[in-house]
Amino acid sequence: MSSRYRDREIEEVSPRRGGRRRSRSRERNTRNHRSRSRSLSPWDRNRHSYRSRRSRSRSRERGGQSGRSGRSRSRSPREDRRDRLKERRRDSRSSSTENMDTNRSRKNNTKDRGEDSPMDQSYEYNNLDNGLEEGELSAPVKRQPISLEELLERKAQKEKEESRPLYLSKEERAQIAVERRKREVEEMRKNQNLEKKPLFSDFDEISRFGKDKERSPDTTELEERRRQREENIVQKDLLKEQEAIKNRYLGGEKKRRRMRRLNERKFVFDWDASEDTSVDHNSLYKQKHQVQLFGRGRIAGIDINAQKRDQSKFYGDLLSTRRTDEQKLRAEELVLRQKEREKKALWDSRHWSDKELDQMAERDWRIFKEDFNISTKGGRIPCPIRSWRESAIPRSILDVIAKLQYEDPTPIQRQAIPIGLQNRDVIGIAETGSGKTAAFLIPLLVWIQNLPAEERGTESDDGPYAIILAPTRELAQQIVEDTNKFAQGLGIRTVGVIGGLSKEEQGFLLRVGCEIVVATPGRLVDVLENRLVHYIIRKNLF
Ligand SMILES: Nc1ncnc2c1ncn2[C@@H]1O[C@H](COP(=O)(O)OP(=O)(O)OP(=O)(O)O)[C@@H](O)[C@H]1O
């Protein structure tokens, strides 16, 4: 060891020399302090005085501990007050260590949150309240807890801030949703991996993996297979789920329970009973009694249809033996009548055109009218004409009709002619050109033809048998022509009393005599006034 190092060691070990050094340095410090304090501001001076006071008090404490009784110089009231305060601080430190710890932890928490703890604030207030200088704020003072009202107020304010709605933009919301979805997917995958974890132990897995690795060093293929297997499982699950949804909401195909029929043979024997050639020696089984049940009774184990057949045969035979001949004949008659009725019912169902006139039923006439669009109103209306041949029109008129080549009557003629033939009033309504003229002419001609011969004299004084009034000259002229077509062949004369034509000629023809007058109203009145026509209707006809 060199002499230089030895000297330093001696310096550190020797207290006497060190004490001297310290006293020297203190002297230097006080010197410096005095010289500096002169040039300092009041604020710096305060801080400096605080430091010097602290160093002095520490040295005093040290002096007290080392057995020195203290300085002999007199103390100022301010120094006394400071000492008292320090003692109080010491007391508070020793008595409330626990409080200090909790306060420290609170302080740390609040620091983390970037806030000033209320305790710190109260701590500062307390210092100020106690009249301490600002330079002494770092000194610990007994901490006063925050008041309950203030605590509640702060809590309410915090809750209010938390409950305030937070408005997010669309992008932020989308970002949050994506992150949430990512978390969910990760969790799901984690769960799936846990579920799909094989049951064998880790050791087995490791050894197997090692073997696989030995067999095929290319692990990508294994990975690929595993992935494929997992995909297959997922696909199967999806299919099952779809199937379940279909069954639930679309009513899937229900498997029908197979119902076993009663007559279904349970067993199939290889041989038929009739093939059995062995003779039963027991007489009881040789002559088996045929069971005959009445009503709906059936023997179990035998075909029901066969039993029914046998039963009906039995009853038929029984009745045939018990019935008398008369009863048998009566039964046969009844059967025949039933058959006829059935045949008739079958016949009636034919169309009216396939039936004769006497076979026409009420239903057929209804259908007939519907077919020709005939509707009637009135009482006891006769049936319409199906054909000229079937009608009650005399042969002579039918010949005229055939001559005019009227093959079938028109609908108005079918219904109006039968009524007219009964000498009844008719109001017939049909469209133009539907044969209304023939509809009233034919019954009129039939009536005139049926009059006795002596009545049909040619006396000029006697009036005509019929007057046909038409509202216009043209219509009257047309009716005259149609009437002449029918009447000329029948020897019935027709005179037209129509305005615009020669009055003298009409008067001459009327005087000669006629059966039918076709007139327009004005010329008819004129003729009556001139006494050319005496009667419109012959009295003796009614
Ligand atoms: N059954 C029939 N078959 C064939 N032709 C017929 C038949 N009945 C009438 N006719 C013919 O039909 C045409 C029109 O007949 P008709 O003048 O009688 O009809 P209408 O109803 O009286 O006409 P309008 O309303 O103009 O007086 C006539 O030429 C007539 O010869």
UniProtKB/TrEMBL annotation:
The keyword rRNA-binding is assigned to this record: no
Domain DEAD-box RNA helicase Q: 386-414
Biased amino acid composition, Basic residues: 17-37, 48-57
Placement of sequence motif Q motif: 386-414
A molecular function GO annotation: RNA helicase activity
EC number: 3.6.4.13
Chain intervals with Polar residues compositional bias: 119-129
Region of interest called Disordered, as start-end residue ranges on this chain: 1-144, 208-229
The reaction(s) this protein catalyses: ATP + H2O = ADP + phosphate + H(+)
Protein's name according to its UniProt entry: RNA helicase
